[in-house]
Amino acid sequence: MSETTKENVNLIPGKNGVEKEIPNLEKARNRMVAEGYKYHALDGSLSGSDSESCNDSMKKSPGEWKRRNQQFICFLVFSVCLIAILAIVVIWQYQNRYTGVNSEMDIQPVIDVINRFGSWTFSNTSQPWNNNTWDFMDTLVKIASSGLHDPFLAMGVGNDDRNNTVNIINIQQSGLTLGSCEMYYTNNSKYPGPLKDAYIDYGTKWTVYLGAEETIAKAKMEAIYNFEQQLALIQSEAWSDPGQSYPAERPDPVESCDGYPAECLTWWAMIPTEVNAYYSPTYNSIAFPAGILQKPFFDPDFPVPFNFGTVGMIIGHELTHGFDNSGRKFDLHGNLHNWWTNASIDGFKRHAGCMVKQYSSYVVEGIDIHIRGDTTLGENIADNGGIKTAYQAYRQWRNSHSSELQNLPGLDLDDDQLFFVGFSQLWCSYYTPAYAKQSIITDEHTYARYRVIGALSNSDAFARAFHCPANTPMNPDHKCVVW
Predict the structure, then answer these.
(1) Residue 300 gets which letter from DSSP?
(2) Domains (range + CATH), the chain
(3) N or C: which end of the chain has fewer CB within 10 A?
(4) What local confidence, expressed as pLDDT, does residue 185 receive?
């Protein structure tokens, strides 16, 4: 063996005391580590053996744990300090929200807008008010052209309600601050008192923040509220008969398809992913985006009666909107037209009045506020008509597909009961107290719990399916039925 070769080998005892030549251990170990293998020393005298590594790590572990604990404690202290600083900043901002601290910097963009429109009378923060140089029409045009808001009047191009084959220029009252006329006038809840107080308080705080004196600001905000309340009353009276507020017409013919506007084939009021559906009185059509055709509204693997109670009810709901207190005023072509007889109108109002009274009697637990049966009437008519229409469709399907029905294992419900369970499950909801109050005031839909109770207590089919005793809450002797 050459000297060069001997430098790369070592001798270790073998069997029968015969020494064997092996490659240099250090190089072998390095190669094995580089190739991803775990190295095991060939004898106990070599550094890097498993036993020595374990013992060494055990000897070092207390110091290592101490170092890591110190790092963790430092991190924890840093986090607590950071959270405390953020909390102080949030509290400071909240407490100084309306105090005017650094107000000159904060409010300057708003003051610039006010000056562009000609100042105001609340305070002298902006340029001085001059009644002689201020022009109402000029200010009206400036505000409207800014895109910030439509003052008093809103204008746009849209379909003619009485003839949807033409477009017109719609000129109508601009929106109210509280969103709807009913928020200024209602007899079915604890409002509008708290709403009025909140309106004036909110406006006063902001005008004070902009430099107004509090007493003057409060008096003027109350005057603004009273003015809007009068506008709301005028608007409410106009909407009671749409023909009285019919807009000026400027014909602009559009292509039609079988008597319907071409837009009805291409334009939707919702995007495909939206979980919703709607009825359009102008086009006399219903639309169901793809988003609603999924659980819990629909699934091809659901039992058929269950699907009828869910998506079937939604379809019936939208169909019934064509005959609710608003949709009934439009004819089959989607035009605003009184096509009912006076006797039919009187009968409708009588039956609808029963439903208003029924839903207004419901009180939401925890907040002690009545449902507003007048403002939710259209949706309640649609719910009641929808569940009735869907049940009739389900029974018709059942009569022709009796062989396809089967009892589901572990489910002690017959097919009719499963239908109503499907409908009820749709409205399983949780409301915080604050959101419950908001929904009662602003939502045209009834509070979810009473969407179920209200519609099913008017259903004879539900009472039969669940064997409800006569003259009980879910099977009253007198039921409200519009359709």
Answers:
(1) T
(2) 1-48 (no CATH), 103-245 (1.10.1380.10), 268-465 (3.40.390.10)
(3) N
(4) 67
CB-based contact 482:352 (threshold 8 Å) = yes
Q: Give me the amino acid identity at 121.
A: T
- Unique residue bearing structure tokens 């569940």: 387
- DSSP structural state of residue 375: T
Distances from the Cα of 240 to the Cα of 10, 181, 243, 282, 444, angstroms: 107, 12, 9, 18, 17
Distance, in Å, from the CA atom of 58 to the CA atom of 448, rounded to the nearest integer, reads 63
pLDDT digits (tens, 9 = 90+) for 66-122: 777 777 787 777 777 788 788 887 777 666 654 444 444 577 787 777 777 777 777
Structure tokens at 121: 């009378």
Report the alpha-carbon distance of residue 335 to residue 266 in Å, rounded.
19
In tens, the pLDDT along 163-202 reads 877 888 877 777 777 767 767 765 444 555 677 888 888 8
Distance CA 299, CA 473 (A): 32
Asked whether residue 370 carries a pLDDT value surpassing 70, the answer given is yes
Residues in the chain, how many? 483
Task: Kindly report, residue by residue over 23-45, the tens digit of the pLDDT.
Answer: 555 555 555 444 444 444 444 44
User: Which residues have C-beta within 8 Å of that of residue 310, sequence separation ≥ 6?
Assistant: 296, 297, 298, 302, 422, 423, 425, 426
d(C-alpha 298, C-alpha 191), whole Å = 38
Q: Which amino acid, 307? A: N
